[in-house]
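Please check the following.

. . .
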Amino acid sequence: MKKFLIVAGLLAFSQSSFGQISNINMNGAPARLNSYSEIEGSPYLFEDWAKADIELSNAGLKENVAYKLNIHDNELEVINEAGNKIYLNKDYVEYALLERPSIQLANGEEGMLTKLLFKKGFDMIKGVGEKDLVNVLAEGKKYSIVRKFYSDLVTPPKNSYAPTAGRMFVFEQSFYLIDKDENVSSVRNKTNKILKSLNKEDQDMAKKIIKESNLNLSREDHIVIFFQKLNEA
């Protein structure tokens, strides 16, 4: 009898432990059933589901997770192990490497990255919260450059063709350059604009890198190459 109780106790403990482990695998709240049917545009970075690798502080690396990034609410929506749609608790998200849907790569601009790295911890940027996820294109000892995606919900003015003004999502993106002292500059992803935003002592080296590598900083892949070389110089 005593042996049976011990075995039963261990079994109960293991089942309890398994339940706790399952619960912390993908922490988050159930995805809200928001209705966007009467709103033009989209609150999502990509309309199609794609795959992501997500590092969680409480559960390690989760690979090939189905995701959609709601850039209007800055929420990462995923499908967890139980097949439920949830918004991840950003307290536990270390980073997320998001694959671009293949259809966007096929129809997109030259030099688009196939995967986008998102991290939090960039609240030195105005309008970015401590837990907000932003796209990190480059991060180094001298400079980092990040991008904030957002989808504003706006109400266009009424006109003669629309007796009642409808609401619509408007896609926007902003780039921010951060130096080693955490000074932040809003920049455009253009070669001359980025060059002018660099510290003066780095501009000659930056011009040399651009010339030698024939870089166009309107391209995502060239931005990555440029800042990798500049940070190593």
